[in-house]
Amino acid sequence: MANFWETKTLDDMTPAEWESLCDGCGKCCLGMVDDPDGGAELKHTNVACRLLDPDTCRCSSYEDRHRFVPDCVRLTPAKIDRLDWLPASCAYKRIARGAELEDWHPLVSGDPESVHKSGNSVRGRTVAEREVIHFADHIVDWLR
User: Fold this and answer.
1) What is the spatial distance between Cα 104 and Cα 6, in angstroms, rounded to a whole number?
2) For 1-144, where are the alpha helices, taking DSSP H only?
3) How many domains does the chain fold into?
4) Domain range spanning residue 11?
5) DSSP label at 141?
6) Is 143 within a domain?
7) Which of 25, 52, 71, 142 could link 121 by a cystine bridge, Cβ 3.0 to 4.6 Å?
8) Residue 144 lies in a domain
């Protein structure tokens, strides 16, 4: 029997299926800055949103995150292809483009820790937003 992510489009998924696609990497919860060299693309930083739990790599207030972080982006099927800052490993992006989930994705591995064990999460690699003065001092290239 095929898995739901192999047979359904993002639009056809139930809310529970949609939410289960998140692998818990935490990459989309890191700050971004304009390219300091004047390039057009945004640069990723290792600065964690104040709501990101650095151990679980999950939002500590997911249901009401917009109350605390009004500009937090709500992912929808219609937005996925327009959000070029999502990492290539993002399950939403991969499904939208017809790719398979990574073998370390918890839905594939059956282990919620597999994203961390494989080194594909931000666990242990972030700094807290409140400790940062200049986000541009924290640009990283390990997110793609």
Assistant:
1) 16
2) 4-7, 15-20, 65-68, 91-96, 106-109, 114-117
3) 1
4) 4-138
5) S
6) no
7) 25
8) no
